[in-house]
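Re: your question from the hallway

Yes, I did run it. Sequences:
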Amino acid sequence: MITLYGASLSPYVRKTLVALAIKNLPFEQIQQMPFAKDAEYQKISPLGKIPALKDGDFTISDSAVICQYLDDSYPELALYPSDPQDKARARWYEELGDSQIGEYASGIFFQRFMRPFAFKQDPDEELVEKLINKKLPPILDYLETEVPAQGFMFGEQLMIADIALCSSFFNAGYAGYEVDSTLWPGVSAFIARVKSHPAVAPLLAAEAKTLGL
Amino acid sequence: MITLYGASLSPYVRKTLVALAIKNLPFEQIQQMPFAKDAEYQKISPLGKIPALKDGDFTISDSAVICQYLDDSYPELALYPSDPQDKARARWYEELGDSQIGEYASGIFFQRFMRPFAFKQDPDEELVEKLINKKLPPILDYLETEVPAQGFMFGEQLMIADIALCSSFFNAGYAGYEVDSTLWPGVSAFIARVKSHPAVAPLLAAEAKTLGL
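Structure:
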C-alpha cells in the first residue's frame, strides 16, 4: 500500500498526486505540512520536506525522486519517455519546473496568498514585482520556444515534464497571476491544456473546494 | 564525441567529471564560467548554468540530468544502482548533495574563497558561522547514520551518490573547512575514502595545481 505525505496545495505534492493519477495507483494521503518538527515524520522525510512516499516498508522523499521511483517500480503508464535523450529533456523540464519556476511562480503565491491568509502578514510587493517582471519573463521566453502547438511536451500523453512545468503556475493563479497570453500565447495555451487534463482537473477542483473558491 | 562545458572547480562540474571518469568515456572539456551572457552558450544551457553536455548533436544541462543521461546512454560501469529502491535512495542522496549540502558547504567556499580571491570582497563571516554551526550539523548528524563503515553508499563501487555527497565538501576544504572527525567520524572517513578514489584523486590533484596549492 502506498501512502503519500504532503499538503495538496504544495506544487510538488500536486505533481506527485498527478503521477499517481496517471498510473492509476491506489494510495492514501496524509495532509502533512512541511518542516514539521516531528521525529516520526523525519524518519520518513529526513529534512521534513513534502512530499514523502511510503511504499510498504520503503520510504523516500523529494518529488522528482518519488516520481522516478514510481516509474521504475510501476512501469505501466509511463511518467517519463523511454528514449535516453527524450528522458534527459523530460528531467531537465522537471528540474526547471521544480527549481526556477517553483521559486518564482510559487514565490508569487507565497507572498500574495500564504502571507496574508495563513500568516496575517503583508506581501513583499517589491519582490512580487521583481518575480513577475524580471525573473519569470526570460523563463517564459524560453518556454515559448519549447512548448508544442498541441498536446504535451512528449506527444499526446501527459507526463511528469508537463505537470512539473505547470504546477507552480497553478499556485500563482491562486494569487491572481496568469501568464500573459498576448506575450506568451504558446505557454498560456499549454498551461490551459494541462489544467483541463483528466489527471489534473479533479485535483484542482478539490483544491478550489478546500479554498472555498 | 562528448563535450563537457564548465569550470572544473564547480562542485557540479566535478561530479560530472567523476561520472565520465567512472565510465571511461572520452570527452573534451571547455572551461565555461556560469551565467555567461553568451547567446551561443545559452543554446546549450538555456539558463547559462554549468555543467552542460554536448553529445553529438544533443545538448543538455544540469549535473543530475547529465549523469542520468550518461547512465541511460552508456549503461556499462553504472553510476546508479539498478534496484528501484536503491536507485531512489541514490537519487535522494544526490539531491541532498546538490541542494542543501551544495548551498551550505559551497556557501562556505564562496564566502571564504571566491569572494576574497576572485571578487576582492570580504566574506560574510556571520553567514559562514551560521552555515558551519547551524545549517550543516543536522545534515551531518543525518549522514552519520547513513554512511557505511567501509566502501561506498552502495557497496564497493564509487557511484554518483558518493561524489554528489562529497563534492561540495571538497570546495569547503579549499576555504579551510573540514568535517569534524570527532563529532562525525563516519562522514569524515567516508569523505576521505571518496577523495582518494582513483576516479576522484587525479581531478583534485589537477585542481590543486591550478590553484597553486
